[in-house]
Amino acid sequence: MESFYKGSVFYYVPNTNYCYICRYKTLKNMSYGLLKGKKGIIFGALNEQSIAWKVAERCHEEGAEFILSNAPIALRMGELNGLAEKTGSEVIGADATSTEDLDKLFDAAIAKFGKIDFILHSIGMSVNVRKGKHYTDMNYDWTEKGWDISAVSFHKVMKTAWAKDCMNEWGSILALTYIAAQRTFPDYNDMSDNKAYLESIARTFGYYWGDRKVRVNTVSQSPTVTTAGSGVKGFGGFLGYAEDMSPLGNASALECADYCVTLFSDLTKKVTMQNLFHDGGFSNTGVTQKVIEKYDL
């Protein structure tokens, strides 16, 4: 037998998930079945760095079935098919800013699953950021496009689900956000405005979803190394500063996925209309000793 803890009296049988003596699940390949029987739609998985990708993997491990969706341009990159194969999921392309595309996507989900239990919105893009346009000199056409993709698409997703009445009671709808909605971060640009609008949509639409016993929340995640995040100027500085300012350190994409699983599960039925900080304590920390020491010359 392999030792579960070195020097401990507890042991587990190799290639199983259970402790031989106490029969508790070990930390190896741990799964709780929190989402067994649940069905959903996950928007925004692009590659293995994506938080949505990690969420899909964890939802699958916890017993959920889901459809993976992303914009047609993202599907042409070809990586999503690997995730679909790994999780036994179907891929359906949809531009989340297009109500016509969303209608087709939700109709397909209803045909496949009937009503669904969860939705993840992990979509965001700023043309101004991509083009290096400064906040004081924004191109407003680009601003409107980024706003539509990053924020209004969340309303469109929920409006489509609402109109089709396709959410089960005690379902859960989540969107990913960032603390730049509350604080100023240079070079995050108009994405700060987009995230603030996104969070407002969650609160307002969440009120109405309450009549149908459905939760709506946003998760404000630590800066995370993703394709989208890495496109922000000075991202390495964001990452390092947040690590130094977070008592528990930055939350990883996988840890964020674990948190999303709990919010899709039946363990959080009465949590709604909240912006939930998943950031190692960054959001409530004024300064840390680590940061003080860098300036205490």
How far is the N terminus from the C terminus?
Answer: 53 Å
Task: Give a count of the beta strands, DSSP E runs of length 2 or more.
Answer: 9
Q: What oligomeric state best describes the polypeptide chains here?
A: single chain
Can you tell me the CATH superfamily of the largest domain? NAD(P)-binding Rossmann-like Domain
How would you sum up the global shape? globular
Q: Spans with pLDDT under 50 lasting ≥5 residues? A: 1-28
CATH architecture of the largest domain: 3-Layer(aba) Sandwich
The helix-strand sequence is: EEEHEHHEHEHHEHEHHEH
CATH class of the largest domain: Alpha Beta
Number of domains: 2
What is Rg? 20 Å
| Main sheet specs | 7 strands, parallel
Structural class based on helices, strands and sheet pairing: alpha/beta
Q: Please report which band the strand proportion falls in: under 5%, 5-15%, 15-25%, 25-35%, 35-45% or over 45%.
A: 5-15%
Would you write up a description of this structure?
The chain is an alpha/beta fold. The chain folds into two domains: 1-30, no CATH class; 34-295, Rossmann fold (3-Layer(aba) Sandwich). The chain contains ten helices and nine strands. The protein has helices spanning 51-61, 72-75, 80-87, 99-113, 127-130, 140-164, 191-209, 235-245, 253-264, 289-295, and strands at residues 2-3, 11-12, 39-43, 65-69, 90-91, 116-121, 167-177, 215-221, 275-278. Strands 5-4-3-6-7-8-9 form a seven-stranded parallel β-sheet, sandwiched between helices. A two-stranded antiparallel sheet has the order 1-2. A hairpin with a 7-residue loop joins strand 1 and strand 2. Helix 1 packs across helix 9. The radius of gyration is 20 Å and the shape is globular. The model is unreliable at 1-28 (pLDDT under 50).
